[in-house]
């Protein structure tokens, strides 16, 4: 994978340099339409901020022309990808419209046991305490039913000593199924998964200690606090 920084862009185009540097780290064969342009779009929005569509088009055309001239003797420079992006006929229109906000998904709340770290991610909480990691993720009712069927139909992999325990659980207004998976050979391993109906919706939850044994009781003592809010 390329690691060298590309030649610096002309001074008026330096606002594009961070994205060009990022493109330089991508193998040439992968510089295609699958590249995420969000960082480039953000830089271009700042470039035309406060301009109407006509003025924005004029500024972008000026930058595009400068970039094209500068790239004439640099056939391998990653900024050719930026040039292609600047050729979009609707670019000025798109950049002078308010940016579309990503759809807001459901939010999960949980009062974690003391000493646990909680990271809020879209529609999910990531949990950690020492080697023990976990997640609580909001799901819709279809996924809630599907996950239970998948767990019930689980068959252990051949050649490994793996067992599954299924329990019906209830913690206050939270109820559902708990699945404990244990591997005894060739190496011990444990994973606990939950598929739960909670106030506001449904969640799937998981605990895993990367091969080490663990006690899920402190986590379960707080399951009654799980809530889902917002659109599902």
Description:
By secondary structure, the protein is an alpha+beta fold. It folds into two domains: 11-95, no CATH class; 107-229, Protein Transport Mog1p, Chain A. 28% of the residues lie in helices and 28% in strands. The chain is built from seven helices and nine strands; from the N terminus they run αααααββββαββββαβ. It has helices at 17-24, 38-47, 53-71, 79-86, 91-95, 141-152, 217-220, and strands at residues 107-109, 117-121, 124-129, 132-139, 161-171, 174-185, 189-198, 201-208, 227-229. Strands 2-3-4-8-7-6-5 form a seven-stranded antiparallel β-sheet, covered by helices on one side. A hairpin with a 2-residue loop joins strand 3 and strand 4. Helix 3 (53-71) packs antiparallel against helix 4. The longest helix is centred in the first third of the chain and has 19 residues, at 53-71. The mean pLDDT is 90.
SSE map:
Elements (H helix, E strand, L loop, with lengths): L16 H8 L13 H10 L5 H19 L7 H8 L4 H5 L11 E3 L7 E5 L2 E6 L2 E8 L1 H12 L8 E11 L2 E12 L3 E10 L2 E8 L8 H4 L6 E3 L3
Antiparallel strand pairs: 1-9, 2-3, 3-4, 4-8, 5-6, 6-7, 7-8
**CA radius of gyration:** 26 Å
Number of strands: 9
Quickly count the domains: 2
User: What percentage of residues falls in helices of 4 or more residues?
Assistant: 25-40%
Q: Examine the coordinates and then state which fold CATH places here, giving the name of the CATH topology of the largest domain.
A: Protein Transport Mog1p, Chain A
Q: Oligomerization state of this entry?
A: single chain
- Tell me the span between the first and last alpha carbons: 40 Å
Q: Which CATH architecture of the largest domain?
A: 3-Layer(aba) Sandwich
Widest sheet: strand ordering = 2-3-4-8-7-6-5
Q: Which band does the percent of strand residues land in?
A: 25-35%
Q: Which CATH class of the largest domain applies here?
A: Alpha Beta
Shape category: elongated
For the biggest sheet, the summary is: 7 strands, antiparallel
